[in-house]
Design goal:
Distance between the termini: 60 Å
CATH class of the largest domain: Alpha Beta
Number of helices: 23
Number of domains: 4
CATH topology of the largest domain: TIM Barrel
Largest sheet: 8 strands, parallel, barrel
Structural class: alpha/beta
Number of strands: 32
CATH superfamily of the largest domain: Glycosidases
CATH architecture of the largest domain: Alpha-Beta Barrel
Helix content: 25-40%
Oligomer: single chain
């Protein structure tokens, strides 16, 4: 069990125990809760030894002051020196260490630079990884948004994930992550130990909304705000203290694992010069305290219940769940909430459930003849004395602040139910690890960042009066599907369902492969029963139609492709995230029963090669699912990856087969007029893009891509060339002849170097309409078939066509590239840029 709050917030923590991730929160390795209260320090002008820190006396005084203010963590932007480590360890402070490298340039363009960065990360982690005072390494910090767009988000994320793996190999006991920011909200590494984000917002409502968004991007990982603060020069010291107060409250209510205030002092050295225009410090350059320091001493990292805390009845239903029930009840007894009861409903178990209940005097035990999960939950509703009923399963372990977070959700009378994430606990063996990574786990469905369409029954709190008004759970749902049915029915009353990221429970997945497949078979049977009850919510192939996005099997930021991210015009949007209408991918049509039906049809038609192709494509589709989940859960090794692939291959087959059987047995059919999702799919590009090379232009005086783009616009207008600019969704800045089958486009980025110098890169792009490419391919296939038929005239025409394509296409591409280079160089010359060759 873990908690978001330390027992002694102001007492310095002595080292020896590592900080580890525990679901949505942090804890020490011995299980002691750890809430991060951090402040940034530096970077500073080099001292007399050339180190990016103050002189030793000032450094020691600063760190003593930081500890006295109540902080337990210091974020550094440079690796700590021996003096820093000694002072931190003496004071019981902890460190987040940033590893600096060339983040301001196109590092992916140079393999030698990539190797240099990898070496820097490996060396730093190997040198410092044994220090227990270091909580985490950050392998990067805020790669600039237009630079990420230039290099492509998927490639940048892949490189960051590689750096994380390198860091983890050299510092296996230390947490590893990358610090992103809202302008690259899609840049979320899947293998990080926690999600780190730097956020600067001046409104409590906007900050809370941003936290909700980032909690969903974080998934099952802790969310740390690694920078937030306010400029005193612009807003004043009183406003700084006010912002610190509500940010502290938002972090606790938002279920965050902690936060880092920017910064300790106004003294700041960056890019080879002192920064004097901003004043973010809690103290000024002379170390004179501002009002925020007095507030920081008073703030307690303790999340409190509502002023009028509702009584909550926790209901656990079990049927032969003795293996996990004791730990479940232990966690419920330890809940930190002022007014709750625990009800254990035994649904006709043949095991010693009553004896386990006797070991927990706080638990009310009730036996019923075996009637199924829904009947047991209804009995719990009838016996409950609380106004809120919180349901969980016998294989769950509740976080100590679970009810605290749930209780705040019901402050709004329009809320009928609330729930939070269910996270698999650390696996005890290889099988549990792989099963936890397999698809089909219970998942919430969100309409937006806070409102849910579905909440899994293992973590579901409902108002008792509303639940009774709709007749409780339907008893025909014996083992699964009851939570989906109840959520749909609750929403039909006009009330809302809220997702609360801090209301976390550990939820054991199945312990064996057989149990996992049995569970998926049961889910399929439940879907058939749901289709019988709610035919309008299912598609013609039997899959449920959700209005919201499904979270669980797939990370929300898995597919950063053109057309899915709103970058803003020219990539300058302040808040850039992935807009995805669904986690479904086209190749997923070939998982489950569809490929089996097509395979059988191919064999009946005596087309063995087609059958082999279908089988191979189904295997490839399952590999896509397994590779995605393996990356998110750090599954390595060929045998483990093979087992995960086999489960990804079998899971949709087993589940859809059970659903089809149930549909036939129950006579369930989807409606001819199903409810369609409200979300409009994002605009997808209709063209594929090929690169024709890159030109680089230098400026000693700070001329950026804006000047180049302005000159290009003038040149295109002078030549009467029709063009369009990026609408915020595209990976180009300007496209000439955009409505033609083949168009030309330019993508730019400016790198900012020391002393105001700039390097502008211009990529030349050839964009080809997808239909044009498919038509060409189809034409070549038809021509080849006719040529193979032996028709001599067609043979001659086909050869002439092939020769023409082979000769004319390269010539045309060469001509287009030459004209684009001429235009780019002309615009650069007019803008005062010098080409680098």
């Amino acid at each position: 069990m873990t908690s978001a709050t330390p027992s002694a917030p102001h007492a310095p923590t002595r080292h020896g125990q590592r900080v580890v991730a525990a679901g949505k929160f942090l804890q020490l390795a011995d299980g002691t809760p750890h809430y991060m209260r951090g402040v940034t320090y530096g970077p500073f002008k080099p001292n007399s030894r050339g180190e990016p820190f103050p002189e030793d006396d000032q450094l020691a005084a600063d760190l003593r002051h930081i500890a006295a203010l109540g902080f337990n963590t210091v974020r550094l932007y440079e690796p700590p020196t021996a003096v820093v480590l000694r002072e931190v360890e003496d004071l019981g402070l902890r460190l987040i260490v940033g590893i600096p490298w060339s983040e301001h340039v196109d590092f992916l363009a140079s393999r030698s630079l990539c190797r240099e960065i990898e070496t820097q990360v490996a060396t730093t982690c190997a040198r410092l990884g044994h220090h227990s005072c270091i909580t985490a390494f950050l392998v990067g910090n805020e790669i600039e948004k237009t630079l990420v767009r230039w290099m492509k988000p998927g490639r940048v994320r892949g490189f960051i994930e590689k750096l994380i793996e390198i860091a983890r190999r050299h510092a296996p006991q230390t947490l590893i992550s990358y610090a992103t920011y809202p302008s690259t909200g899609y840049l979320v590494p899947r293998n990080a130990d926690f999600i780190a984000v730097n956020v600067y917002l001046e409104s409590a409502a906007a900050f809370s909304a941003c936290l909700a968004r980032w909690q969903n991007l974080a998934g099952n990982q802790p969310l740390l705000i690694t920078e937030f603060g306010l400029d005193v020069a612009s807003h004043g010291p009183e406003r700084q203290a006010e912002v610190m107060r509500w940010q502290h409250d938002c972090l606790l209510s938002g279920g965050c694992a902690g936060g880092v205030w920017f910064a300790y002092t106004d003294e700041w050295f960056r890019g080879g010069r002192e920064i004097t225009g901003w004043q973010f410090g809690l103290v000024d350059r002379e170390r004179k305290e501002r009002p925020a320091c007095a507030l920081q001493r008073k703030l307690q990292p303790t999340y409190l219940p509502p002023a009028a805390a509702p009584r909550i009845s926790v209901v656990v239903c079990t049927h032969n769940g003795a293996a996990t029930l004791s730990r479940c009840l232990d966690s419920l007894v330890a809940l930190r909430y002022p007014d709750f009861e625990i009800l254990l409903i035994d649904d006709g178990s043949r095991q010693h459930i009553a004896e386990i209940a006797k070991g927990h005097p706080q638990v009310r035990y009730q036996f019923q003849q075996h009637a199924g999960l829904s009947a047991a939950r209804n009995l719990g509703m009838q016996l409950a004395t609380g106004s809120i009923i919180a349901y969980t399963d016998d294989d769950c372990i509740a976080h100590p602040v679970w009810l605290l977070h749930l209780s705040h959700a019901f402050a709004d009378d329009s809320v009928a139910a609330a729930g939070g994430p269910n996270i698999p606990p650390p696996p005890r063996n290889r099988t549990e690890h792989i099963v936890a990574a397999a698809p089909g786990a219970p998942a919430h469905v969100l309409l937006n960042d806070t409102e849910a369409e579905h909440l899994p029954g293992c973590n579901l709190a409902i108002r008792k009066d509303v639940l009774a008004r709709i007749g409780g759970f339907r008893v025909e749902f014996k083992t699964a599907g009851d939570d989906v049915d109840i959520c749909w029915r609750l929403r039909e009353t006009g009330r809302r369902l809220l997702f609360v990221p801090g209301a976390m429970v550990w939820h054991h997945r199945r312990f064996t492969i057989r149990a996992y497949l049995t569970q998926q078979f049961g889910y399929g049977c439940a879907e058939a029963l749901l289709m019988k009850t709610h035919p309008e919510r299912f598609g013609f192939l039997g899959g449920a139609r959700w209005h919201g996005g499904i979270y669980g099997d797939q990370h929300p930021a898995d597919y950063p492709v053109e057309g899915s991210i709103f970058h803003g015009p020219l990539g300058l949007g302040a808040f850039q995230v992935i807009y995805s209408s669904s986690s479904f991918r086209w190749w997923e049509w070939f998982t489950g029963l569809l490929w089996l039906a097509l395979l059988l049809l191919a064999l009946i038609c005596q087309q063995p090669w087609l059958a082999v192709g279908l089988l191979g494509f189904a295997g490839w589709s399952a590999w896509q699912v397994s590779a995605r989940n393996a990356a998110a859960t750090s599954i390595h090794g060929p045998l483990d990856r093979l087992l995960l692939w086999s489960l990804s291959f079998l899971q949709p087959v087993v589940r859809e087969w059970a659903r089809l059987r149930g549909m036939l047995a129950l006579g369930a059919r989807p409606s001819r007029h199903p409810l369609l999702p409200d979300i409009v799919p994002p605009t997808r590009p209709h063209k594929i893009t090929l690169s024709l090379g890159t030109l680089c232009f230098w400026s000693e005086t700070g001329i950026t891509r804006d000047a180049w783009l302005q000159e290009l616009r003038k040149a295109l207008r002078s030549a009467h060339i029709i063009f369009r600019e990026d609408d915020g969704w595209r990976w180009f800045d300007i496209e000439a002849w955009p409505w033609s089958e083949v168009s030309r486009a330019f993508l730019t980025v400016t790198e900012f170097h020391a002393n105001g110098r700039c390097l502008t890169r211009v990529k030349l792009l050839l964009r080809i309409r997808r239909s044009f490419g498919w038509n060409m391919l189809l034409w070549l296939i038809v021509t080849s078939i006719l040529m193979a038929a032996g028709l001599h005239m067609l043979l001659v025409l086909g050869l002439v066509a092939v020769i023409a394509i082979v000769l004319l296409l390269p010539l045309g591409v060469w001509f287009i590239r030459r004209e684009m280079r001429r235009l780019a160089r002309s615009a650069a010359s007019s803008a005062g840029l010098i080409e680098m060759r």
